[in-house]
Amino acid sequence: EVQLVESGGGLVQAGGSLRLSCAASGFTFDDYAIGWFRQAPGKEREGVSCISSSDGSTYYADFMKGRFTISSDNAKNTVYLQMNSLKPEDTAVYYCAAGIKPSTTPDDMDYWGKGTLVTVSS
Q1: pLDDT at 91
Q2: Residue 97 contacts by C-beta under 8 Å, 6 or more apart in sequence?
Q3: Distance between CA 87 and CA 7 in Å, rounded?
Q4: Is residue 114 over pLDDT 90?
Q5: Which sign does the torsion angle of CA 97, 101, 105, 107 carry?
Q6: Which of 8, 46, 52, 86 is the most buried (most CB within 10 A)?
Q7: DSSP-assigned states of every residue in 31-48
Q8: Do 22 and 5 touch, CB atoms closer than 8 A?
Q9: What pLDDT was estimated at residue 62?
Q10: CB of 48 within 8 A of CB of 39?
Q11: pLDDT score recorded for residue 77
């Protein structure tokens, strides 16, 4: 059974940092790209970042502006999203997802986790 389990969300003040984790199981990790997506209340789900498990290539949405960093520990089948300089507008449920090709387009992903809530207070 494919599983993607996010953790690390929580409440943080503006300017603070969080590190999200996505633990994957049930599929060949190296064959997939893992992406982070987010959905704020009343808004559509949007791509944040993606990493290719095979070669480590990374992709970021333009609005990241260097604040977030994605990384992967293939030995642990885990992908991380380090989020710095958080802003109230970063408040959302953050999801990780797996897809055959790297993408920040939600429709390109095949498997999804249940999400972890990030709340940034002003």
Answers
A1: 97
A2: 4, 34, 35, 36, 37, 106, 109, 110, 111, 112, 113
A3: 19
A4: yes
A5: negative
A6: 86
A7: GSEEEEEEE-TTS--EEE
A8: yes
A9: 87
A10: no
A11: 95
List pLDDT tens digits, range 27-73: 999 999 999 999 999 999 999 999 998 889 999 998 877 899 999 99
**Helix, strand and coil in the chain, % to nearest 5:** 10, 50, 35
- Residue 95, pLDDT > 90, answer yes
Measured between alpha carbons, how far is residue 54 from residues 30, 34, 76, 112 in Å? 5, 10, 14, 19
Q: Which two tokens stand for residue 9?
A: 């969300």
Taking phi first (over 0 means left), then psi (-120 to 50 degrees means alpha), and beta for anything else, what does residue 55 get?
alpha
For residues 71-84, give the mean pLDDT.
Answer: 96
CA nearest 74: which of 120, 29, 22? 29
